[in-house]
Design goal:
ABC transporter involved in vitamin B12 uptake, BtuC; globular; mainly alpha
């Protein structure tokens, strides 16, 4: 199986991605409403010195950017898994009902269990994401011939609209619009160390399991018949990968709310760079997804300072033209 699509070794490509990620992290930490220098960032991260700016870096900006890294990598990896597992180039957690289901579950939990802990919100988001995905795949496979890429997207749009309407109706009826909108706006404004510490294990475990099953996912993405012929237990692999997708999507929604298009864009871009081998697609998707999320958050904080532009709006402006381009190509992958 080809390692990549050019003569440049994968190691060099990975190093280049890591350099870009590191540079974007530095920009994200220094740019914003507060005037912070690289020296102050370095001091805050490497010493125990105190001060107002150092406190802003450690307690506000750093957990926010780490949250952006976690969410960007989670959504990118979950999108890559979905596209490989379903062989659907239009697959994305935000387009196929997962984030909408998690969002609806979040609204229901806040309405009927107002004193639930953050752990409870995350569990509710996991359940909602799973229900949303099952509704989409169930509806799209009812018609004879199974689900096609466009049928899945149409079902995803219908189910997502219904679930968003359900969440909105509950939040209005129970006067929770302000609280729910904190998540649905897709923001990282209030990200705290406690939230990061809670969601990080779920996302890291999901990505590690995805890396462990990347070879099986590569074979599965080519043909299910080939995978069965090579002795794979495709049902078991799909169940595990589905759980991984739910973990990654649910944890992301619990932190930043609905975020569409990262899981669609990043895997397409990555496959152009490293090819179709998911042993390379998964780690590079995690890095590039984190970098894109850091970029979007930085733009959102600086484009109209001291006010914030929702990260979800920035990502949507990037992702919608990309989505339309893929549709124009007939749902074909870029690679």
């Amino acid at each position: 199986m080809e390692e990549n699509k050019s003569f440049i070794p994968f190691t060099y490509k990975l190093l280049l991605m890591l350099v870009a990620f590191g540079g974007m992290f530095i920009f994200a930490m220094t740019l914003g409403a507060a005037d912070i220098s690289f020296k102050e960032v370095w001091t805050a991260l490497t010493t125990n010195k105190t001060g107002d700016k150092l406190l802003v870096i450690r307690e506000i900006r750093l957990p926010r950017e780490i949250g952006a890294i976690l969410v960007g990598s989670a959504l990118a990896v979950s999108g890559a898994i979905m596209q490989g597992m379903t062989r659907n180039p239009l697959a994305d957690p935000g387009l196929l009902g997962l984030t909408a289901g998690a969002n609806a579950a979040l609204a229901i939990t806040m309405a009927f269990l107002p004193f639930v802990s953050y752990y409870g919100i995350i569990i509710a988001c996991f359940i909602g994401a799973a229900i949303g995905a099952m509704l989409v795949f169930g509806i799209s496979s009812i018609k004879r011939g199974g689900f096609t890429p466009f049928r899945v997207v149409l079902a995803g749009a219908a189910v997502s609209t219904f679930l968003y309407a359900l969440a909105e109706g509950i939040s209005i009826y129970y006067k929770l619009s302000k609280e729910v909108s904190m998540w649905t706006a897709g923001g990282l404004v209030s990200t705290s160390w406690k939230q990061v510490q809670i969601i990080a294990p779920f996302i890291l475990i999901g990505i590690i399991v995805a890396l462990f099953l990347s070879r099986q996912l590569t074979i599965l993405s080519l043909s299910e018949e080939v995978a069965v012929g090579l002795g794979q237990n495709t049902t078991q692999i799909k169940i595990i990968l589905f759980i991984v997708i739910v973990l990654l999507s649910g944890a992301s929604v619990a932190l930043v709310g609905n975020m569409v298009f990262i899981g669609l864009m990043i895997p397409h871009i990555v496959r152009v760079i490293v090819g179709n081998d998911y042993r390379f697609v998964i780690p590079v998707s995690a890095i590039l997804g984190s970098t894109l999320m850091l970029l979007a958050d930085t733009i959102g904080r600086t484009i109209n300072t001291p006010y914030e532009t929702p990260v979800a709006a920035i990502i949507a402006m990037m992702g919608l033209p990309f989505f339309l381009f893929i549709v124009h190509k007939g749902g074909k992958t870029l690679s």
